TrEMBL record:
It comes from the Archaea. One of its GO terms (cellular component) is plasma membrane. It is a multi-pass membrane protein. The lineage of its organism: Archaea, Methanobacteriati, Methanobacteriota, Stenosarchaea group, Halobacteria. Its main location: membrane. It comes from Natranaeroarchaeum aerophilus. The chain crosses the membrane at residues 20-48, 69-88, 94-111, 131-151, 157-179, 199-218, 224-248, 255-279, 299-319. This is Cytochrome d ubiquinol oxidase subunit II. One of its GO terms (molecular function) is electron transfer activity. The keyword Transmembrane helix applies.
Length: 335
């Protein structure tokens, strides 16, 4: 007979640890994609030729910029709630990298605010450079951290640094694609050319990363690449990259943006394939080894997952509100 209540030493469902692994990966993927196009727009800010173009780019993502960073907080929160040993090792073994990421995010975050405080060309140029540099360095270091984590090779290894380059190229691709939706005319056409170049650069960076990682067999990637799912992910990535280039050239902006979103999902699939069933390869720690005991995970599930559903619903509403193009006269972000 099935017991009415779950025992205190049992999970609510048998696969609850794997469900929380999926939640952690979901938060990571949403952050890489959503804040990724923020980083990309920040890097493309360097190509602006006039003050009006700078205002247009800031308006394109201004209303959603801070909201997207929620997923970085969410990733850390979910990780410490369900897998505290992984959270502890990830930060303690990469604390210098984590501090550098924090400074890069701060430099990027405060620069636009400080820029408006003084009507001085030199001051504004300095703030612009800080914003652009922070937008470049943040995804580079974040990608390096993720690469070090999934490959288990250390932050200074070539596979880890190349993962950072891959995330930079992906951010440029998604940033240009979002600007394709938000702008029009000559600015939109210029962003399409940048976006096509970024996608080609992304595919090249992925090929280089896979070549180096396979040569070193970092994170046992040879078995992943040789598997049916690994081959499917590689072919899907190539197909999405080609589709993004074609759609950008034809002015199919929604399809272009969807293709770059698919590239982010494919990259997340690679991360999951490299990690699972382990969750911290450097320590050979599996999901079941690192997960908390049943009582705290059950409580986190009952309290946290409904909140996650509410946040996802809020984001769907937020993006529907700001779905339109930027008004070239008022520089408002598509209400």
């Amino acid at each position: 007979m099935t017991p009415l209540f779950v025992s205190l030493d049992e999970y609510l469902i048998g696969s609850l640890p794997e469900l929380w692994f999926a939640v952690v990966m979901l938060a990571l993927g949403l952050y890489v994609f959503l804040d990724g196009f923020d980083f990309g727009i920040g890097m493309l800010y360097a190509t602006c030729e006039t003050e009006a173009e700078r205002d247009t780019l800031m308006a394109a993502f201004g209303p959603i910029w801070k909201a997207n960073e929620v997923w970085l907080v969410g990733f850390g929160t979910f990780l410490i709630a369900a897998f505290p040993p992984v959270y502890a090792r990830l930060l303690s073994e990469h604390y210098l990298l984590a501090i550098a990421i924090l400074f890069a995010l701060i430099a990027r975050g405060v620069a636009p605010k400080l820029r408006d405080e003084r009507e001085d060309a030199t001051w504004q140029e300095t703030c612009d450079r800080s914003f652009i540099l922070g937008s470049l360095v943040s995804p580079l270091l974040l990608g390096t951290l993720v690469g070090s984590w999934v490959f288990g090779t250390g932050a200074l290894s070539l596979p880890a640094v190349l993962t950072g380059v891959v995330v930079v190229a992906l951010s440029l691709s998604t940033g240009a694609a979002l600007l394709g939706l938000k702008t029009d005319g000559a600015l939109r056409d210029r962003m399409a050319r940048y976006g096509q170049g970024a996608v080609v650069g992304y595919l090249g960076a992925v090929v280089l990363l896979l070549t180096v990682a396979v040569a070193l067999d970092a994170g046992a990637i040879r078995s992943v690449v040789a598997s049916i799912s690994g081959i499917a992910i590689v072919l899907t990535t190539i197909g999405l990259g080609v589709a993004a280039v074609v759609f950008a050239g034809r002015g199919a902006d929604r399809a272009w943006f969807a293709s770059t979103a698919g590239l982010a999902l494919a990259l997340l699939a690679v991360v999951i394939s490299l990690l699972y069933p382990t969750i911290y390869p450097a320590a050979e720690m599996t999901v079941r080894d690192a997960v908390v005991s049943p009582i705290p995970l059950n409580v986190s599930t009952i309290i946290g997952l409904p909140v996650l559903v509410l946040v996802l619903g809020y984001f769907a509403y937020l993006y529907s509100v700001f779905a339109g193009p930027v008004d070239e006269h008022t520089f408002e972000g598509g209400y």
